[in-house]
Amino acid sequence: MVKRDSYLKRLIHNMWNGEVKVITGIHRCGKSVMLFDLFYEYLLSQGVPEDHILKFELDQRRYYKYRNPITLCEYVEDAICDKKEEKFFEMLAGEQEKEGLILSLYVRFATDLYKAYVEKEIPDEVYDATFSDFTIWYRHCVKERKKIGLCEEQWLKLHLKMKLFRLGRLQFEPDEEQKVIHVHVPEGESLSREGCEASFAWADRFFDSSYKLYDCESWLLSPALKELLEKESGILQFQNCFEIQSVNLENRQAEERVFGSILEDPEAYPENTSLQKALKNYLSEGKKTGAGYGCRIRKKIF
Questions:
Q1: What is the 8-class DSSP label of residue 195?
Q2: Are 130 and 136 in contact (CB under 8 A)?
Q3: Which residues lie closer than 8 Å to 102 by C-beta, 6 or more apart?
């Protein structure tokens, strides 16, 4: 077997740039050897488990069905879901340039998932809004990690598994085991009682009647915010959509969301906004905001 070190180095150098690699050449010049032998052995030498590598020799009869791109994509999706999902994320965690790979894969999976939305007669508006979350976490990745790609891959897998939908201003995650619908608030837009109620009304129609309850656990539901914000605040308007059941004072999500990070000394927090100033003073007094847990009964739709 002829070693092709220069070509192999080029392939290795560009392997995580998020682009598809196409190797071309005349018949029997060594293209298959490059991929299925040389590059394969390199991956194994880097600690990639053998069952994490998918090989398709499309000129062989047993692989003919994978010449259909839909069939091939479905196979790849199945390979990284369910039993192999954990291994997939373990593999990503070990990669230095995983963000670009995640972006490439997730955008492709989201594109392929559009067919399922059409089959279930879910409006394009919901598809577009749901996957706008990719843009949010792309910006976070660029800002915080200084890399082009996606972060929060565990969160975004819910979108790809059709376990989370954005309906208007809010996101809804149906929990089939508990028969509740978890509510999330994506960043980027202001909150209003009218906008939130419109989202709940949409969700009442969107999900079947087996789900009896909405719930939410978030810093946005902390009762302490009533001391820090004006009554007309969008955050308090959202909070008023729920009945607060409990508060976890050890949860410091509010600091992470308001200041961008959690510091041990509250005096070190910035004061660039009125909320930052108010929360900083509150924490400096030794108080805790915590996170609230709230519930909301679904309206019956006949």
A1: H
A2: no
A3: 92, 149, 150, 151, 153
